[in-house]
Design goal:
The chain contains no helices and 47 strands. With 604 residues, it is mainly β. It is globular and about 100 Å long.
């Protein structure tokens, strides 16, 4: 029995409703009338009503139809792909009495069209969109007083003459990228390099450069063919080029491995095909020979639980491990860490006896050994990688689990742990939500020997007790002393998912995926090393000093007339604390008799 969708109706002012037509969406002929969509009907100059369906017709790609006010229904056009497909918006009557409209698919590039159609069904394709960044229109057209049509595609506002000349007026895309989910990497030139998962000129993600002083440059926009949605940080190779991965893109849309030079040239080295892995989200790890190792969370083997791979700098890929049930661990979500013993260490987000994920070791030849299976009490679902201390101890986080339990499995707030290379695990800290929730990135060591990291949620909830929180930055010592450093509040960023990076200045740099003034994420610095930012002479010879340092930390301001003297011989001017923004100011009023004075600032 055919299924019917009743959408063509009329109603009197007294409320009497009459069904004019019932669409036949399955009449057994393979040539259905289609189903009514979101587009309203358009009144033609002949008094009849005209509309579209998003499917149906001879190719099941949508139609244009006419219906009279007494219910006589006529299909005028069947979209077939070449002339457009899947129209979603209402028709617009032009000055010539013809109807103008858009399809979100089809045309010569499959990216949508603008068309006109007469009242008897003669269709003319006026525009076939060619650029994916400015294509896929889902809205209708507006006939303006200047005689031109105006509309919106996915990435732009455009103007079209009645003859079909199209001009993009405004880009709706963030051309420098949005949602950076990867950590920054320090280049040989002292600048930071990173990726954004979204936007760019092709809406497929970008590569950017960022100076310590805050100068931002977008270097490259992916285009789907060479990669789509880079989610991991870049890795610096021995040849001075950067190497990285994209989650999607390539011929099979299963992700890529690429090489990128700072002059803007990108080379696709590997396109994953699911048999050799799929959808890499990892930063690559390099061995002593300059080869790179990484993981995919999908593909490889009959069950598709992910892989460990090696790739040379000229693109030769070797699958070392295909994760299976027999391995005891599955689905690696992060990259590998090159261990001091020549092996690689990584985490999986699921698998093991309780399906809570684990930690594994793999040799360069592909021999994989599970080291730990999480049981929720000691953590669950590690999403970040590991970092190794000089003594060989590994440190990491789990996004869920721990002893600060709420209701249900995987509803705990996560843990920080340390692990020996032979599998002895110690929980250092259990998150409480107020100090963070769901740490999803690898930890890093600061110059002070402490570990620093981020949580994706928790902390500040913007006044909403039921909120997930906007994320945090924290410090933890190797023996488990925890300090919360930053609670993100949306204006300064929110929801960091990437590891921090240590700059040459001793400070931390990182990204948030959302928040900031533009809403597309931020790049931030956390000052760990106190610095004098300005010294200026004021009225009466007094000297005004300003500086930055760790927010809330105590500082000592020292002065000397001889810079070569040992620090113990310098004079203490004042002791104070940096404010909540990590700033301080002080006026030295003891300068009247000194021709030369040197200043130093330090934290205890």
């Amino acid at each position: 029995m055919p299924r019917k969708e009743m959408i063509s109706t009329k109603i009197t002012t007294a409320g009497a409703l009459t069904t004019l037509h019932s669409f036949q969406t399955n009449n057994g002929s393979g040539n259905a009338e289609g189903s009514g969509g979101q587009a309203r009907l358009t009144v033609g100059s002949d008094g009849n009503l005209y509309g579209i369906t998003t499917d149906g017709g001879s190719a099941n790609m949508g139609t244009v139809f006419r219906i009279t006010t007494n219910g006589i229904f006529t299909r005028l056009v069947s979209f077939t792909g070449a002339n457009g497909a899947e129209p979603k918006a209402e028709l617009t009557v032009g000055a010539d009495g013809q109807f103008y409209g858009t399809t979100q698919r089809g045309g010569t590039a499959g990216l949508g069209t603008v068309f006109k159609v007469t009242t008897n069904g003669a269709l003319t394709t006026l525009v076939s969109f060619q650029d994916s960044a400015n294509a896929l229109p889902q809205s209708g057209l507006l006939l303006a007083s200047d005689g031109n049509f105006y509309g919106c595609s996915r990435g732009s506002v455009f103007r079209m003459t009645p003859g079909g000349v199209l001009t993009n007026l405004v880009s709706l895309l963030a051309l420098n990228g949005t949602r950076p989910q990867a950590g920054l990497v320090l280049g040989l030139d002292g600048n930071f390099y990173g990726t954004t998962r979204n936007s760019g000129s092709n809406s497929a993600g970008t590569i950017f450069r960022f100076t310590p002083g805050g100068v931002f440059t977008s270097l490259f926009s992916f285009n789907d063919t060479n990669g789509f949605a880079p989610q991991a940080g870049l890795a610096l190779g021995q040849d001075g080029n950067f190497y990285g991965t994209t989650v999607f893109g390539g011929p099979d849309d299963a992700g890529t491995i690429f090489r990128f030079s700072t002059n803007g040239n990108l080379t696709t080295l590997v396109s994953f095909n699911r048999n050799n892995g799929a959808n890499p989200q990892c930063q690559l790890a390099m061995d002593a020979s300059g080869n790179f190792y990484g993981t995919t969370p999908d593909g490889g083997g009959p069950n598709g639980f992910g892989t460990v791979f090696r790739v040379t700098t000229n693109g030769v890929l070797s699958t070392l491990v295909s994760f299976e049930d027999a391995n005891g661990v599955q689905v690696p979500s992060a990259g590998l860490t090159a261990g001091q013993d020549g092996n690689f260490y990584g985490t999986t987000s699921t698998g093991g006896p309780k399906a809570n994920g684990g930690v594994f070791r793999v040799t360069p030849g592909g021999l994989m050994t599970p080291l730990v299976s999480f049981d929720n009490t000691n953590g669950s679902t590690p999403l970040g990688g590991l970092v190794q201390a000089n003594d060989g101890t590994l440190y990491g986080t789990t996004a869920f689990g721990g002893t600060n339990s709420t209701i249900g499995p995987n509803s705990n707030f996560g843990t920080i742990f340390k692990l020996t290379t032979n599998g002895v695990l110690t929980t250092l800290f259990n998150f409480h939500f107020t100090d963070g929730n769901a740490p999803s990135a690898s930890l890093i060591f600061g110059n002070d020997g402490n570990l620093y990291g981020t949580t994706q949620f928790g902390g500040f909830t913007a006044g909403n007790p039921a909120g997930n929180g906007l994320g945090t930055v924290f410090r933890i010592t190797t023996n488990g002393v925890f300090t919360s450093l930053v609670l993100f509040q949306r204006t300064n960023g929110s929801n960091p998912q990437a590891p921090l990076v240590l700059g040459k200045d001793g400070n931390l740099y990182g990204t948030t995926t959302q928040g900031g003034t533009g809403g597309g994420g931020t790049i931030f610095r956390i000052v760990l090393t106190p610095q004098l930012s300005r010294i200026a002479q004021g009225p009466g010879g007094n000297v005004l000093l300003t500086g930055i340092g760790p927010a809330g930390a105590t500082f000592h301001l020292l002065v000397s007339t001889d810079i070569s003297l040992p620090i113990a011989s310098w004079t203490l001017l004042t002791t104070g604390a940096f404010d909540t923004n990590g700033q301080f100011s002080f006026t030295d009023t003891t300068t009247a008799t000194a021709k030369t004075r040197f200043y130093r600032i330090s934290t205890p």
